[in-house]
């Protein structure tokens, strides 16, 4: 049941369109997945896709799937071949226009839908800082970064305020996918519906003002900031952006092309909003196949002064001794040299992106690609490394068909008999990497992480 006050507000906002809007709540909800370009291409995947797919118009790799498909249960999900994501939620990261080599911040990033989408566009080059304020959600974000085989992301668990003390005009692009009252998700999320109140809308709006102010200070002059919410509440949409522009004359709204079904922002819904608010974007469920969303694409004007600063300068590489075990493993098992800065957290070895700033003073969950751990006399490769590698990157590969009993047994943690040279094997499913196995004496020992095993 929708809150009465919410319905009244929507009626006032939408007028004649209200009927179509409210009827959209009876439509079947749209489900979608986004292919991971780090792992596959649409041409390759669609040839063998085990689901019925239809393109999401505004997302390069987005596809609706049918209500009888269960992509979350397929081994391709564990292999990070796609990310299941609400279709409207795919729009903000598209408008960020992330490019390889850039420095990008995703400030409110968990569980990682948009971070993983941005990473796909960066193709492993540049620096992606994915931040989440809530520790438990930051952990899920970090797991999704791993599953999708992302090599150039750092995951932090910080407040926007503390991050803004660390980074001044540092990032080329920032996404603020703000915490909001979630009205656009009422159809999918009953809790958001039950917790709704006007007081919460006001609180969210105040919190968004603060988050946006911190984001503004971290963006380079000339940079792009995309702001998004999944609510209809004007106070959190046109309102947040109007208030922001009043506080920050160094920003302007960019005019961008809208996909079919997207609507303009409405200046009449916010107090004293400038006419340019029309160039922000509304997604309504009665006008397109997706839930309610809002986004604004902002540009920080050039001022010719380069102030880019990160506290503590650049991250320093660890001593050669600590890297040796990994290098010996790589020499024996990999065909690929990874580029980056080697760093250690205890006995855990990571390869941070080339341009990694000093991370001291920040709560870091994942400082780049986790390569593995230094054990007494050997190196043990990590699950993250397996997911970031392709069959051609390793010496030994063992493929298990995605519809086979064997892949299900592997994901359950079972070892299996196999022929071949002794050593580490990248286990793949239909050619997509999914984990490690270690072959000795005709037995492939299972190295699929215990925490991810399931009873299928
Ligand atoms: C809309 S969700 C982000 C969804 C995510 N971008 C994705 O695509 O998967 C907003 C996030 O902001 C976080 N958050 C809550 N309060 C916050 C605050 N004061 N500052 C920054 N982030 C906050 C929430 O924990 C939540 O994970």
Describe what you observe in this structure.
- The protein is globular and about 75 Å long.
- It is built from 14 helices and 25 strands.
- The longest helix has 21 residues, at 198-218.
- β24 (432-440) and β25 form a beta hairpin.
- The protein is α+β, with helices and mostly antiparallel strands and 456 residues long.
- It has 2 domains: 4-300, Rossmann fold; 389-456, Archaeosine Trna-guanine Transglycosylase, Chain: A, domain 4, CATH 2.30.130.
- Bound molecules: S-adenosylmethionine.
- Residues 89, 108-114, 132-134, 137, 160, 177, 179, 207, 211 line the site of S-adenosylmethionine.
- This is RsmF rRNA methyltransferase first C-terminal domain-containing protein.
- Residues 21-301 form the SAM-dependent MTase RsmB/NOP-type domain.
- Belongs to the class I-like SAM-binding methyltransferase superfamily. RsmB/NOP family.
- One of its GO terms (molecular function) is S-adenosylmethionine-dependent methyltransferase activity.
């Amino acid at each position: 049941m929708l809150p009465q006050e919410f319905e009244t507000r929507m009626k006032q906002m939408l007028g004649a369109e209200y009927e179509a809007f409210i009827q959209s709540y009876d439509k079947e909800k749209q489900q979608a997945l986004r292919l991971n370009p780090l792992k596959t291409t649409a041409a390759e995947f669609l040839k063998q896709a085990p689901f019925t797919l239809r393109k999401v118009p505004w997302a390069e790799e987005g596809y609706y799937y049918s209500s009888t498909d269960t992509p979350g249960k397929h081994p391709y999900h564990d292999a990070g071949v796609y990310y299941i994501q609400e279709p409207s939620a795919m729009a903000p990261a598209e408008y960020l226009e992330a490019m390889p080599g850039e420095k990008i911040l995703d400030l409110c990033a968990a569980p990682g839908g948009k971070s993983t989408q941005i990473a796909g566009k960066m193709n492993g080059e540049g620096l992606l800082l994915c931040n989440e304020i809530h520790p438990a959600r930051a952990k899920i974000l970090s797991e999704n970064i791993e599953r999708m085989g992302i090599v150039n992301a750092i995951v932090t668990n910080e407040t926007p305020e503390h991050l803004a003390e660390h980074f001044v005009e540092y990032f080329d692009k920032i996404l603020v996918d703000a915490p909001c009252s979630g009205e656009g998700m009422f159809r999918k999320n009953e809790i958001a519906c039950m917790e709704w109140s006007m007081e919460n809308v006001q609180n969210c709006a105040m919190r968004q003002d603060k988050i946006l102010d911190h984001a503004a200070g971290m963006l380079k002059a000339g940079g792009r900031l995309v702001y998004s919410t999944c609510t209809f509440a004007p106070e959190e949409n046109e309102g947040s952006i109007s208030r922001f522009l009043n506080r920050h004359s160094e920003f302007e709204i960019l005019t961008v092309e809208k996909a079919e079904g997207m609507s303009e922002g409405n200046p009449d819904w916010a107090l004293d909003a400038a006419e340019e608010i029309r160039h922000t974007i509304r997604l309504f469920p009665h006008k397109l196949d997706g839930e309610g969303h809002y986004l604004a694409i902002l540009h920080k004007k050039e001022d010719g002064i380069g102030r880019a600063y990160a506290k503590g300068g650049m991250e320093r590489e660890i001593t050669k001794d600590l890297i040796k075990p990994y290098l010996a493993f790589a020499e024996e098992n990999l065909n690929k040299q990874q580029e980056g800065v080697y760093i250690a957290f205890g006995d855990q070895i990571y390869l941070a992106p080339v341009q990694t700033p000093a991370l001291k003073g920040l709560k870091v969950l994942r400082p780049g690609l986790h390569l593995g751990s230094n054990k007494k006399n050997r190196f043990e490769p990590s699950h993250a490394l397996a997911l970031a590698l392709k069959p051609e990157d390793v010496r030994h590969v063992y493929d298990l068909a995605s519809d086979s009993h064997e892949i299900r047994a592997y994901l359950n943690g079972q070892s299996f008999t196999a022929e071949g040279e002794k050593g580490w094997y990248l286990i793949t499913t239909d050619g997509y990497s999914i984990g490690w196995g270690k072959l000795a004496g005709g037995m492939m020992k299972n190295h699929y992480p215990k925490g991810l095993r399931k009873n299928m």
